[in-house]
Amino acid sequence: MNDVNFQDWVGRTEETSDQAYPTPPRALAATLDQPAGEFGVGKPLPELWHWLYFLPIAPTSEIGSDGHPRRGGFLPPITLERRMWASGRYTFHDALRIGDVLHKASEITKISSKEGKTGSMVFVTVRHAVRSGRGLAVEEEQDIVYLPMPKTFTPPPPTPAPEKPTWSEPCAIDPVLLFRFSALTFNGHRIHYDMPYVTETEKYPGLVVHGPLQALLLLEAAKRRNPGKTPARYTFRAVHPVFGHDRVSLMGVARQDGGEDLFTVNGNGHVGMQATVAWAPNDQSR
Predict the structure, then answer these.
(1) Residue 275: partners with Cβ closer than 8 Å, 6 or more residues away
(2) Is 285 helix (H, G, I), strand (E, B) or coil?
(3) Where is this region: Disordered (predicted)?
């Protein structure tokens, strides 16, 4: 840890604009084996697909050794080497549409430290509000965790998959999918595509499947299982790494409140990502 007072970063804000042009969602649809022709101007952008915009376009000279932009700008200069997107919380107010001019306002709302089994950890919570010309569309809270670099890979305690899911389907994961998702989100983090780096430096046993990719795959699967329903709220939390060599399944469990709990599950039956979706009332579907 360093002597910088990270609390000085709480309350920092930044704003950025972009336009929801059609090529990124068409490319993501093709990556997910979905029809790419549905993304003409004026068509709705699926929930979470706003991640295709507001990309972190840092010059190559400002990239750190892990492939991320160097720290110390909007985010605090935390020296712990590992960085992961730990969890997210979303409220969907309105659909973004292809062709919309988009605006995102971001604020660091919380920074906290704790001691874990692997040493010190720092959590940074960032709140985003995404708007179109029609008003507020998406509220997002993102938790980023910083960890020390381990000497060996020690997985967290496993969380068993649900014994009787409402539905389950296999999900093909391979290095090409990981590379294409990294490219579409301009994510240079080397754990997703650089095998020597991920195994020798970060000590993982294989390429790491992006947390946001898992969250997106789960939500897309839940929507396929619930045609006509629109997500109103969505939360996800990473509980165990999922690797590119894993045999992955997507599972859903119906909730008494009408929503669904969602899980990515590896070949050992361990949960990787846990999520929950709440559906909008029928008269509020966008």
Answers:
(1) 215, 218, 219, 234, 235, 236, 237, 261, 262, 263
(2) coil
(3) 1-22
Rg of the chain (C-alpha set): 19
Q: How far is CA 143 from CA 32, 111, 125, in A?
A: 26, 10, 4
Q: Tell me 255's DSSP state.
A: -
How far is the C-alpha of 165 from the C-alpha of 43, rounded, in Å? 33
> Would 82 be classed as within a structural domain?
yes
Query: With b meaning 16 or more CB within 10 Å and e meaning fewer, what string describes 130-158?
Result: bbbeeeebbebbbbbbbbeeeeeeeeeee
Instruction: Please give the helix or strand (H or E) that residue 15 lies within, else none.
Output: strand 13-19
Residues of the chain falling short of pLDDT 50: 1
Question: Which parts of 23-134 are beta strand (E)?
Answer: 82-92, 101-116, 119-132
Distance CA 118, CA 82 (A): 12
Question: Residue 244 belongs to a domain with what CATH number?
Answer: 3.10.129.10
Q: What is the pLDDT of residue 1?
A: 46
Closest CA to 11 of 106, 105, 107, 77: 107
* Number of domains into which the chain is organized: 1
Q: What pLDDT, in 10s, does the model give residues 126-179?
A: 999 999 999 999 999 999 999 998 889 988 899 999 999 999 999 999 999 999
Examine residue 113 and state whether it is found in any structural domain, yes or no: yes
1 domain-assigned: no
127: in domain = yes
The CA-based angle 46-51-63, given to 5 degrees, is 165
CB 166 within 8 A of CB 263: no
Domain enclosing residue 269, as ranges: 6-284
- pTM summary value: 0.94
Angle between the 23-31 and 175-184 helix axes, to the nearest 10 degrees? 170
Pairing of strands 101-116, 82-92: unpaired
Closest CA to 52 of 185, 141, 187, 183: 185
Give alpha helix (H) positions in 1-119.
Answer: 23-31
Structure tokens at 200: 């020798």
